[in-house]
Amino acid sequence: MSRGLSLGLRVIGACLLLAGLLYFIDVDPLLSLFGEMSLSHYGLAFALVIAGTFISTARWGLLLSSVNLRINYFRLLAIYYIGSFFNVYLPSTVGGDVIRIALAHKSTGRLLRSGSSVLAERALGLTALWTIASVAFLLNIPLLWPTPALRGILLCVTAGTAVSLFAIGFPQRMHAILSATLTFLPVWRLPFLEKGMRKLLIVLADIASRRSTLWLSFGVSIVFQLLSVVVKIIVCEALHIDIDPYVLFVISPIINTVVMVPVSIAGIGLREWSSVVLFGMAGIQPEQAVAISLATFGLILGNALVGGGVYLVWNIRQAAVQWSEE
Predict the structure, then answer these.
(1) CA–CA gap between residue 100 and residue 71 (Å, rounded)
(2) Are 303 and 84 in contact, with CB atoms under 8 Å apart?
């Protein structure tokens, strides 16, 4: 599928999801929630989102160090912010992760290692999300167990968490399983693809072999994901929505996982619908769920806009360097 067609389908998907949402919900209560929003609480939430970017950058630095790559922290922070900008504002032909890999490669000269560090960071982030949801669910099972659909989702998430933690705890065995899997998947038998995948697995195995760094990176991921849930709690306070924190700790990670499905632009529409459905299972009104989702997305937009400023400065500096060399 061409990049242009993929972008077009995602734009259509976002428009359809938003159109259905506007038909489904009552807009007046939604506007009322935003009209009474506490800006001081919202500002605090935004400050925590920025802090989360600094934490994520530190996690990426740890994973780069595990493959013997070193990038100055503030340069790495700039690259991370530029990737965030591309993810949200320019999610068309080049994803933010690809931009991060390209810029890290330019800084280190190591493409495969740079790429594997980003993949490992994504995997650890997803594992941390599922771990938080699973632990919150297991600590307060009676709260959400009566809802069959949500119970099924959470049991699947808990199973996924167990597999992911097994991969972190026993990386050599997981590497052997993945390597063996390549043998049985016909698509990987294409020579160029199989060779590339095996090289990638070797580098990922190198990351996994540094267990202390891997577990430290996972711990940082837990801190970051906990912080993202705390941001949701503060957003609810800002909107004067009364919601059990346990519900946020269970449902927010699931929503963040759903948003990764590439059917819309920057998760627009998908984020709101998943909020309506999942929060609705916990007794939250659709308008409240949409307000939480939109307010949270506003924080993401603001933080990514900082990345736009960083990208502008980055290009100006690059142009200045090229001009001085001519």
Answers:
(1) 12
(2) yes
Give 28: exposed, middle or buried? Use CB within 10 Å, 0-12, 13-18, 19+.
exposed
Q: Indicate yes or no: pTM above 0.70.
A: yes
Nearest to 85 by CA among 317, 319, 315: 315
Consecutive H or E run containing 170: none
Rounded CA gap, 325 and 319, in Å? 10
Domain for residue 29, yes or no?
no
Per-residue DSSP letter, 36: T
Closest C-alpha to 287, from 34, 27, 15: 27
- Cβ-contact 97, 122 below 8 angstroms: yes
pLDDT tens digits for range 228-273: 999 999 999 999 999 888 889 988 888 988 888 777 777 788 888 8
Tell whether the model's pLDDT for residue 93 goes beyond 50.
Answer: no
- Give the pLDDT of residue 307: 92
Instruction: Render 58-69 in DSSP notation, one character per residue.
Output: HHHHHHHHHTT-
Task: Please give the tally of structural domains in the chain.
Answer: 1
**DSSP 8-class letter at 70:** -
In a domain? residue 32: no
In a domain, 55, yes or no: yes
Gap between the terminal Cα atoms of the chain: 40
Angle at 271 between CA 267 and CA 274, to 5 degrees: 140
Q: Phi first, then psi: what are they for 9, rounded to 5°?
A: -65, -40
18-69 pLDDT tens trace: 777 877 888 888 889 999 999 999 999 999 999 999 999 999 999 998 888 8
